[in-house]
Amino acid sequence: MSSNGGIQIPSRLPLLLTHEGVLLPGSTVRISIDSARNMQLVKSRLLKGTSLKSTIIGVIPNTRDPEHDSEELPSLHSIGTAGLAVQVVGSNWPKPHYTLLITGLCRFRVTQLIRERPFPLALVEQLDKLEQYTEGQQLDGGLGELSQKFYQAAVQLVGMLDISVPVVAKLRRLLDSLPRETLPDVLAAMIRTSNTEKLQVLNAVDLEERFKKTLPLLTRQIEGLKLLQKTRKPKPDDEKRVLVIRKGGAFPSRQFSLDEEGEDEEGDDMAVLERKVNEAAMPESALRVCLKELKRLKKMPQSMPEYALTRNYLDLMVELPWNKSTKDCLDIRAARVLLDNDHYALEKLKRRVLEYLAVRQLKSSLKGPILCFVGPPGVGKTSVGRSIAKTLGREFHRIALGGVCDQSDIRGHRRTYVGSMPGRIINGLKTVGVNNPVFLLDEVDKLGKSLQGDPAAALLEVLDPEQNHSFTDHYLNVAFDLSQVLFIATANTTATIPPALLDRMEVLHVPGYTQEEKVEIAHRHLIPHQLEQHGLTPQQLQIPQDTTQEIISKYTREAGVRSLERKIGAICRAVAVKVAEGHKMSRSELSSESGTVQERAGTGRDSDLAAPPEMPIVIDHVALKDILGPQLFEMEVSERLTLPGVAIGLAWTPLGGEIMFVEASRMEGEGQLTLTGQLGDVMKESAHLAISWLRSNAKNYQLTNIAGSADPLEGTDIHLHFPAGAVTKDGPSAGVTIVTCLASLFSGRLVRSDVAMTGEITLRGLVLPVGGIKDKVLAAHRAGLKRVILPKRNEKDLEEIPAHIRAELDFVPASTLNKVLNAAFDGGFPTAAVTHPQVSSKL
Ligand SMILES: Nc1ncnc2c1ncn2[C@@H]1O[C@H](COP(=O)(O)OP(=O)(O)OP(=O)(O)O)[C@@H](O)[C@H]1O
């Protein structure tokens, strides 16, 4: 290790790649080792090696974070510091890692990388002469002057500190005993410098340059300290405080613990933090906690893991908008215009939202209710929530609750846990930076439950206006006032929202759209939006109403408009390619193209320059098929009703209404009933009810079994199937459909192919009301059916249905099964001569 009288570092050095902190010669840092390469280096060199040589390693700063450290070696900084590993501490918790205490010796340059794995090994060239340090030569010339100036500045800095603190006294002595040329490195490592600045000092191989680089940093620190001392009023207990601050943060402690992150802030870190704590306008209780934590922090060495924890906590506390809010600028008339402009249709929802806003305007301290928009996907629930924030001039933040199954997601983890974090509510507040945003709790119906507690229970406190003024996040551990936050929830169904949570909200149902509404929404909102997204203009692409109709009926089957928007997006992409190509293509080339895209002579100014002259491209029937492929959905209704034993029911799903084919068949057997299609208990009971009613009325309706006997079940097995087989179905509303389907089977007559029905049945043949009428009727209309049989007591729900749809459908309100059957079969479903006693509902 020693040659020519000077100290030489080995010419081959294993390289330790660090991503935080910069080791400078003459300083000591603590480095946390957890990347695979560095772990290998520690294991095979430091833990196994016995010679002094084996404890010298090259530290290369500023490589990428090891988390992102791939197999590939990142490009390395060419200059590093050879360091002596003074201490290695290993730990298995929370994951295996080592902490290395390492003292910088001298600079080196990587001349050649010998190998990369298991850890990098390189040929190096030593840059600083270590013997200089020991001989203490005098520097002369310009360099001498510079070093003298630097020394004086260093003395001045130390002079500003409290000499009664032992480390300061030691530092003062060190300044005199250390060779001058080592001062830039030693001081740059001690004073407040960012990583970038330290890196510049490391890169300054030339001594003069190094002095020049470091001197301004030193002067800056002196100025900062001066400023700090000026701002401190000489209070009796102040002196003590200055001392504490110096001890803990600013200067002396850095000599021994330099492993902190680089900070660019001027002035004393702790003082800045303390100022921020005092300025955060937090309530008394929170302030007390913060000051206590701050006090602890000041006493803590920075290398302690708890230091970072406490520091993060305090940073969050000062960032939270305790008293910061936006001013509501609510103008109901403007709100109405904005809601109307952003959303077509949705009249009921918009009316209720306006009422809600109006009451808020009159009574600003309105507590609750919390609105919950319930409806199928893509009907604009989220987007109405966003509009509400816009009309109020408030910040908007969406919290997706789908799949959240841990209550700490809402309420945060206690700070005792490693990696603890605040919950989503507090995080959201930090993100928006004000305490009165609009929070959209998306998908509250999809909250999960697990061993980690029930998130819905945590939400109860958040949403309860009586409690949420003192919401306590586990991480914060002090109350935060959420009463100014406006909560809006969305869900696809109320069935899976926990009852206690549902009870705190006002549910507004947002049903699916009719075909006509979808066309309007497409032309007013979706097409312009998609055109803009794809950099197209209406002069380049036109989608006529007929085409939109076709997309809706043949390429989408949904209650909302999301997949319609996607299809329009697909068209825009296809046209964007044409337009982009068009810039290059000559007119003749274009006209020889297949006729799938109809072209009209352009009239706009774009026609000459920006776009080819054939603009706009109009998407017609052929072009649509070309872009979107063959149609995805067919109206197959009439084809499926060509045999007896099939009837169309109407079902409600969280995705909107749907038509459902109920199929029945019979074969010789022992009177067994088989049900398939993943049915729930209620639905199975409906099937049994239907069979019982039909058996008891078989004579009356002249229903027979295969052999012609009067009991339809005698010697006969019956199979009832509900497609789609993979989807679980339940509920009583299929009752009338099952009866109709079986009546068709037993009588051998076909059910009318344009009829759909819904309704619960009783054993005595009554038809009881069911829910989701609007969605069901819309589904029947979408499917092109003409007649809808529904329970008489649901007649009032028809008012919600747009007039033009009502006009196109024939509604048959039925209170008895007799009426249902009469409406479902062409020419009615006659009874035998003995007239059936008229049963009327008294329920
Ligand atoms: N009535 C409407 N007028 C204009 N645009 C609409 C309307 N309804 C829906 N949209 C548009 O449809 C898209 C989907 O809406 P949004 O994301 O709000 O649906 P959602 O109901 O919240 O669905 P999910 O339940 O899946 O969250 C948005 O781009 C929205 O702008």
TrEMBL record:
ATP binds at G375, P376, P377, G378, V379, G380, K381, T382. The keyword Oxidoreductase does not apply. Residues 13-222 form the Lon N-terminal domain. GO terms for biological process: protein import into peroxisome matrix; protein processing; protein quality control for misfolded or incompletely synthesized proteins. It comes from the Eukaryota. It holds the Pfam family Lon_lid. Keywords: ATP-binding, Hydrolase, Nucleotide-binding, Peroxisome, Protease, Serine protease. Its main location: other. Residues 585-612 are annotated as: Disordered. A motif (Microbody targeting signal) lies at residues 841-843. Residues 588-597 have a biased composition (Polar residues). The keyword Cytoplasm does not apply. SMART domains: AAA, LON. It is found in: Peroxisome matrix. InterPro entries: AAA+_ATPase, ATPase_AAA_core, Lon_bac/euk-typ, Lon_lid, Lon_proteolytic, Lon_Prtase, Lon_prtase_N, Lon_prtase_N_sf. Its EC number is 3.4.21.-. CDD domains: RecA-like_Lon. The active site is at S733, K776. Residues 641-827 form the Lon proteolytic domain. Belongs to the peptidase S16 family. This is Lon protease homolog 2, peroxisomal. The gene is LONP2.
